[in-house]
TrEMBL record:
<feature type="domain" description="HTH lysR-type">
    <location>
        <begin position="10"/>
        <end position="67"/>
    </location>
</feature>
<dbReference type="InterPro" id="IPR005119">
    <property type="entry name" value="LysR_subst-bd"/>
</dbReference>
<dbReference type="GO" id="GO:0003677">
    <property type="term" value="F:DNA binding"/>
</dbReference>
<keyword id="KW-0805">Transcription regulation</keyword>
<dbReference type="InterPro" id="IPR050389">
    <property type="entry name" value="LysR-type_TF"/>
</dbReference>
<dbReference type="InterPro" id="IPR000847">
    <property type="entry name" value="LysR_HTH_N"/>
</dbReference>
<dbReference type="InterPro" id="IPR037402">
    <property type="entry name" value="YidZ_PBP2"/>
</dbReference>
<protein>
    <submittedName>
        <fullName>LysR family transcriptional regulator</fullName>
    </submittedName>
</protein>
<dbReference type="InterPro" id="IPR036388">
    <property type="entry name" value="WH-like_DNA-bd_sf"/>
</dbReference>
<keyword id="KW-0804">Transcription</keyword>
<dbReference type="GO" id="GO:0003700">
    <property type="term" value="F:DNA-binding transcription factor activity"/>
</dbReference>
<dbReference type="Pfam" id="PF03466">
    <property type="entry name" value="LysR_substrate"/>
</dbReference>
<dbReference type="InterPro" id="IPR011991">
    <property type="entry name" value="ArsR-like_HTH"/>
</dbReference>
<dbReference type="Pfam" id="PF00126">
    <property type="entry name" value="HTH_1"/>
</dbReference>
<comment type="similarity">
    <text>Belongs to the LysR transcriptional regulatory family.</text>
</comment>
<dbReference type="InterPro" id="IPR036390">
    <property type="entry name" value="WH_DNA-bd_sf"/>
</dbReference>
<keyword id="KW-0238">DNA-binding</keyword>
Length: 309
């Protein structure tokens, strides 16, 4: 009989990857399901094979199949995980938790959305505390050190050991002052778009890479005249100038009244922005972290400032 390591020598964080591997029978599909990089999932599989002293997944023809040991594990693992989730969900009480959550996000999110997200936990009965910081280059460094609980962003360049949950997608639009010379036009041409002075916001992931990547691929470049580290600062500048910028549609729609702005569709087709919550994989099975990230995701998706009514 094969020997299996004692339970106290096993990394319990591997149970969720193991379940995904057995269900999808593919490193790539299991990684996609959990929102982690394929190299990370391959590392998990290697660790599981060593711990369980079994291949778990073997190639048969063009497909991967479970070994007899893997079949035996699969028969009970999903029930075990379901039971564990019930235990930790029942045992976690946010009113008794004294944890400080550190959240990095752009100023639009921190000013217009996060106050409502954390408001239910700022009363006397709760002991939770929150530290909301701007999502910038310094915050990225803290994130890489595992010192930030969550990042809320449309940026996409993250290391493989960060887990991503895409919470929404949105069109990109061109935003400008209501007094802009192009504001009375319903359709803006590419020539007009490129001829305008542009403002651009740089966050922790850099500038609007998706837009500039498209333009570069078509041998085009916009005339960036202003770079800011926050969206609100940029909207103030746009309001009082002939600058334009490219932002997610929900931002433009919700900021239009406050800043005297208007917005138009872009003169080219580009993939939608993806609004995501990221966290370090070390937090993935942390019960309080899991509870609060579920709360964050639900509140952001349903917040009026995240939607276009």
């Amino acid at each position: 009989m094969k020997s299996v390591k004692p339970l106290n020598n096993i990394n319990m964080n591997l149970l969720v990857p193991l379940n995904a591997l057995l269900e999808y029978r593919s490193v790539t599909a299991a990684a996609d399901h959990l929102g982690i990089a394929q190299p990370t999932m391959s590392k998990h599989l290697a660790q599981l094979r060593k711990i369980l002293n079994d291949k778990l997944l073997v190639r048969v023809g063009s497909h991967m199949q479970l070994t007899p040991t893997a079949h035996n594990i699969q028969a009970t693992l999903s029930g075990v995980l379901s039971g564990l989730n019930d235990i930790f969900a029942a045992s976690y009480d946010p009113l008794k938790d004294k944890r400080e959550f550190i959240i990095a996000c752009p100023d639009y999110v921190s000013v217009y959305i996060m106050p409502d997200v954390i408001k239910p936990y700022l009363h006397d009965e709760s002991q939770l505390s929150f530290h909301i910081i701007n999502w910038d280059v310094q915050a990225r460094s803290l994130l890489l050190e595992g010192l930030i609980d969550f990042v809320i962003t449309i940026d996409e360049d993250f290391a493989p050991n960060f887990i991503r949950k895409v919470i929404d997608k949105d069109d990109w639009v061109m935003v400008m002052s209501e007094k802009h010379p192009l504001a009375n036009k319903e359709t803006i041409t590419m020539e007009e778009f490129l001829a305008q002075p542009h403002a651009q916001t740089i966050t922790g992931g850099g500038s609007s890479k998706q837009i500039d990547r498209y333009l570069k691929n078509h041998q085009l470049k916009r005339n960036v005249r202003l770079i800011t580290q926050g969206y609100i600062q940029m909207y103030v500048a746009i309001r009082d100038s002939e600058l334009i910028s490219v932002v997610p549609k929900h931002q433009a729609a919700n900021m239009a009244k406050d800043f005297g702005l208007t917005y138009r569709s872009l003169p080219f087709d580009v993939a939608q922005s993806q609004h995501s919550v990221y966290w370090h994989e070390k937090f993935n099975n942390d019960s309080s972290h899991q509870w609060f990230r579920d709360h964050i995701i639900n509140e952001i998706v349903n917040h009026p400032c995240h939607r276009v009514d």
